[in-house]
Design a protein that fits this description.
Keywords: Disulfide bond, Glycoprotein, Immunoglobulin domain, Membrane, Signal, Transmembrane, Transmembrane helix. Its main location: membrane. The chain is of the alpha+beta class. The strands form three sheets. A six-stranded mixed sheet has the order 2-11-10-5-6-7, with no helix packed on it. The chain has a three-stranded antiparallel sheet with strand order 3-9-8, with no helix packed on it. A two-stranded antiparallel sheet has the order 1-4. A hairpin with a 6-residue loop joins strand 5 and strand 6. It starts with a helix and ends with a helix. The N terminus is likely disordered.
Length: about 200
Amino acid sequence: MLTFLALASVVLLGIVPERSQAIVIYTGWERHALVGSDIRLSCSFFSWRWTSEDVTFSWTYRPDGSRDSISIFHYTGGAAYVDNKGPFRDRLEFVGNPGRRDGSILLKNLEFADNGTFTCDAKNPPDIVGRPSSVRLLVFEKVPIQAGVITGAIIGVVLGLLVLIVVIYYLMRFLVARRVFSLSVSKHGKKKKEGSQQRQIKV
C-alpha cells in the first residue's frame, strides 16, 4: 500500500507543474478610442516569485481581418525595443514599470487602420509558463455609447417612474384620508348643531 502511494505521488508530481513556474498575465478586454487620440494598453502579471531582473515583456499586433501577428515591442535586459519598421514605429512609447510588473505601452495619434488585437506576453524567470493576454482596440471617429450606459439609463428611468408612482399613491391616500376626516368632522358638527337646536325648541 505504501509503495502504491509513493508511486502515485511521483506520478502526480511529474504531471502537475510546479507552482514556481506559473505566471498569469492580465490586460484589458476591449478598449475604445478616437481617431487622433492616445491610448494606454495595460499589461501586468502575477508570479509566485519576486520580480526578476530578467523580466521581459512582449507585445504583438494582429490587424482586423488578418491572420498574422507582428511584433511591435519587446522589453528585456532593462531596455525597451520598438519595432522600427511596423505601423507603430513612431507612435509607440513604453510607459510601464517592470519593477512593479507593469508592461504597459502608449499608442499615439491613433488611426482607423490601428483597429485590431494586441497581445502581451511576460516572463519572470524562472516563472515562464503562462498564457499571453489580449486586448482588442476599436478606433472610432466618435466613441459610441456603450451598452452598459444605455442599460444604466433605462434602469434609472424605470426606478424614477417607480418612485414617482409610490409618491403619487401615498399622496392620494393622504388626500383621501384628509377628505374623509373633513367629512366626518363636518357631519359630527352638523349633528351636534341639530341636537342643540332641538333642545332649544323643547325649552
